[in-house]
Amino acid sequence: xxxxxxxGMNTQNQIKRTLEQPAAIxxxxxxxxxxxxxxxxxxxxxxxxxxxxxxxxxxxxxxGCLRALRELEQAxxxxxxxxxxxxxxxxxxxxxxxxxxxxxxGVPAQAQDVRGLELIEVRTEQHMRVWNExxxxxxxxxxxxxxxxxxxxxxxxxxxxxxxxxxxxAALRLKDREQWIxxxxxxxxxxxxxxxxxxxxxxxxxxxxxxxxxxxxxxxxRQIADDYEAKYALRPWLLESFIDTETHRxxxxxxxxxxxxxxxxxxGRQDRHTxxxxxxxxxxxxxxxxxxxxxxxxxxTAGSPPLEPGAGMDGPQWAQQEFGDxxxxxxxxxxxxxxxxxxxxxxxxxxxxAAAEGERATVKGYYRMIDQPDPSPITMDAMLAPHRExxxxxxxxxxxxxxxxxxxxxxxxxxxxxxGLGIIGGNQxxxxxxxxxxxxxxxxxxxxxxxxxxxxxxxxxxxxxxEKTRPxxxxxxxxxxxxxxIRALRDCREVAEQLPQTRLVCVLDREADFYALFxxxxxxxxxxxxxxxQYNRNTTDSLQLFDSLRAxxxxxxxxxxxxxxxxxxxxxxxxxxxxxxxxxxxxxxxYRRVEFRPPAPHKKQGPLSVWAVYVHESxxxxxxxxxxxxxxxxxxxxxxxxxxxxxxxxxxxxxxxDWHRVLKSGCRVEALRHETAERLKRAIAIxxxxxxxxxxxTLLGRECPDLPASVLFSDLEIEVLQAFAQKxxxxxxSTRRCRALSRxxxxxx
Length: 749
What we know:
It contains 24 helices and 17 strands.
């Protein structure tokens, strides 16, 4: 029989499957009847030799074999010899010294001044007694026992024993860890042995040495992989640790480049029935291998589990989830980005100096990150990359996702000294309006909930000089402003390749009505287009597009709700907009398949076939402009219901307009003050995610009134709301309102 090499749950199950075979059970019975084994350990060793149960180092897997034998005995297959160690094991005390460990002497105030700092792996009997004595006397959780594979260190120096560390097997299941890694259950069972948990970390309380804890963590991070592999013939890829936030802030872990990725559920490793409640602890991880996900042989995005909209928004760790994995060239900058986003989200409309609440070091670190010299790895794409990966996960849980594209101008005319701005328009006095143009792709569910920002392009428009102007037909598409729509479509196609079970539909306004975009989709399908028509194109029929649709048969009638629209005065190149009240419009629907004739520059491409939906209002109120829409779709429309679906999806395009409004009004992105356009982009990237989060919180509160308040608010915010409600209870006419606010833990008001 071939030998079984491996470790962990997979190997344990394999040993059990081997021993529960009828032939193996008969072999065990014969061995027991022969009387050649006097105890269970000798029996397990015999079976390991016979069946080839070895670990990667060639040692017998006695423990796994014993466990399988006990389970088979409970099933009634045979009776094992009496256990000699069971009674002793329950009363066994850790090996200790006869006295307390001597206190270190002459320890300096700074860690770099400690002489002879060293980590000693616990191997000898004497070192084990010292480690146990330290933990039992000075660590709140004592000496253990530790679980699974174990590795212990003593922290020593010329000044004496400074503390100790203990490592054991990782937690079997951990929701936030699984989501952060992105593995499924099969991958977790296969590679969980590569994760090592830090069960004990002790720096003796009487020491006042600054930065000693982070210095020790840095040493053990460089040393543990080799020591663990030498002991267990298995190289770890990831370290994890749990920190009680009620007593510790995790400062030393963050200083050693550990990342906080979530919280525990408040249950112990062996608590299968929720009988032993533990305190909720923050989960910190440190990758020993930068490409550990690639070593697991799965895609970081494709292997991640699907999430529901709004997942991960609760608690203080949302910034870590949205920005934590940003590759900015330095892990300190990545941590700074997370901290800056978390602080800015508390006061989205204020400058960062106000959001930092006067902490000079925090303000200085933020501006040092934003004001990195150009070129720098700190770009908008790099800062938004973790949020993009996080956005893909809830998209997996949807059958259809709308990728809404649109652009907006950011006005920075007040920044006269800012370098790198472009011309976004002009006013009536011929003065040029300076700023940036933002083109984004927002992922939205078919129910209207925004999932996140898939792509954001920000650049400074530069109008061509009069002497360099060329006919439009001679300008390559790559040099035109409309090329941003094609780049965004290609980006959506890359996302679609990761989501084979999810349909992506790009919903675009009239600016995207140009032939090159539809031609791009025709040659590279994978993402559908839904575009509002702007031009009355020539078709292969005798009539043009709009006339052909008006002449087509009527398919049905239904009502749509027209939302209220506020008035807008003329600003920059935008036209003035009059307000309109909310109303219900009764519309008539036409749809048919049409073929466009290619324009002159694309004559060789041939006709382009799409489906068109024409909606018009026949009897609008007096003085109101009637609704008249023409939507172009690359997916077939065979029924009135499908036409209504296209219309409803296009109405959700307004979500990106709401997002732009939150970005400009709520986050006040146009009030930023920086010296270069590149620095503005970095600050804008942070506020893009904050604006999405604010809008999603608002929509969840409106459309899901039964949603627990803990999903959107922290415990402190809930307490503030409760206190505010209690304060307003005596106010006249506020009884109903305060009744809703006084129970934010049940329902959002």
